[in-house]
Backbone:
């Protein structure tokens, strides 16, 4: 069983570049209309719900420039409410980036970090170190697959 439940694509605006940050034509992409209304966002944050974890934690793509300009100048790539006070405790935010492989690795990092902090009661430094190791492994596997012209394992 997957460790997450995919949920719908919201009606929030696309990233400033105008390009979708994920491949919405992928058959595995969540179907529209499954996000709850409260998760819709029309502010400059461009917050778009993309997944829900088993514990109902919601995962959002957000405009990183908006976060850096309005909340924390040092915010990079992603985070959760266990690291940043401006993110609700039951949310994980990932920056909208053009490269979907980066988003996958960043999402894995943020989820691992979140799980270790929330459920294992580990501090940020320990959780971040473990999450960085997982992210590095995923990126290495991605490079190996790309070098061997393998698009997907499953």
Residues:
């Amino acid at each position: 069983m997957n460790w997450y439940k995919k949920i719908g694509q919201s009606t929030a605006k696309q990233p400033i570049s105008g390009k979708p940050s994920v491949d919405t034509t992928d058959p595995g992409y969540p179907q529209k209309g499954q996000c709850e209304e409260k998760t819709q966002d029309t502010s400059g944050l461009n917050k778009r719900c993309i997944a829900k974890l088993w514990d109902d934690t919601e995962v959002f793509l957000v405009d990183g420039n908006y976060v850096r300009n309005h909340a924390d100048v040092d915010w990079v790539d992603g985070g959760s409410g266990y690291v940043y006070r401006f993110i609700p405790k039951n949310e994980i935010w990932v920056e909208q980036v053009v490269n979907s492989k980066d988003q996958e690795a960043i999402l894995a990092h943020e989820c691992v970090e979140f799980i270790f902090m929330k459920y294992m009661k580990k501090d940020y430094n320990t959780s971040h170190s473990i999450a960085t190791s997982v992210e590095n492994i995923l990126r290495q596997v991605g490079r190996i697959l790309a070098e061997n012209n393998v698009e997907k394992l499953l």
In short: The radius of gyration is 15 Å. Residues 1-24, 26-33 have pLDDT under 50 and may be disordered.
